[in-house]
Amino acid sequence: MAQKTAPDSTRRSERSRRAIYDAALALVGEVGYAKLTIEAIAARAGVGKQTIYRWWPSKGAVLLDAFLDLAEQAAEAASAGHDTVQTEIPDSGDLEADLKFVMRATVDEFNDPKYDAPYRALAAEGLLNPELGQEFVEKLLEPQLQLFVDRVRRAQDAGQVLPDVDPRIALELWSSPLAQRWLMRSGALTHAYADKLVEYALYGIARRPA
Fold it and tell me: Is 46 left (phi over 0), alpha (psi -120 to 50) or beta?
């Protein structure tokens, strides 16, 4: 008699987790975060809602993990040469060109519905839920901002940026306006706009006094 193989609970759990991620990301795009519920995620994923509550305390926590997983998959695809998502800032020796390259990729990501809806939901929920907001910053935003800090520091080492410039403050000159325009929907997000932010940040807008 053939011996029966015991079910692989690890594989089953991973399938359920993946289905939950996919369901949360799809639903937040379809119905918005306000109408997103654990029950709806469970139904779409084909799991019991207790399965979700066993792993996550809230719909925000589910969505955060789903979005982090999406970002990780994009990074893996980029490293394999199958995507345009940037996992590091190139160093061609031309700071302006490198910043424009990554800022344009950021514009493309903000304009992609796959990222836009969950990103907005998490940004809003983070204001109401400090714990989730802190996790959102630490796990998602901070690593991305640190890439800019590292690139500016390399430019300082190469003598391209003034030595007393604080890279952390400097990056806000181009990243914050882009995020503000996206969040408030106050204007079109284009490559040309991203280029101007970089140019204004690097070279200023006023004539220096004689």
Answer: left
Residue 13 tokens read as: 């759990």
The pLDDT tens digits of the residues spanning 119-163 come to: 999 999 999 999 999 999 999 999 999 999 999 999 999 999 999
For residue 153, give every residue at least 6 positions away whose Cβ sits within 8 Å of its Cβ, in sequence order, or none: 167
What is the pTM (predicted TM-score) of this model? Answer: 0.84
User: Are 89 and 147 within 8 A, CB to CB?
Assistant: yes
CB-CB contact of 199 with 112 (8 Å): no
Q: Are 161 and 152 in contact (CB under 8 A)?
A: yes
d(CA 180, CA 155): 26
The number of beta carbons lying within 10 Å of the beta carbon of residue 118 is 24
Report pLDDT for 208.
Answer: 72
Single-letter amino acid, residue 143 = P
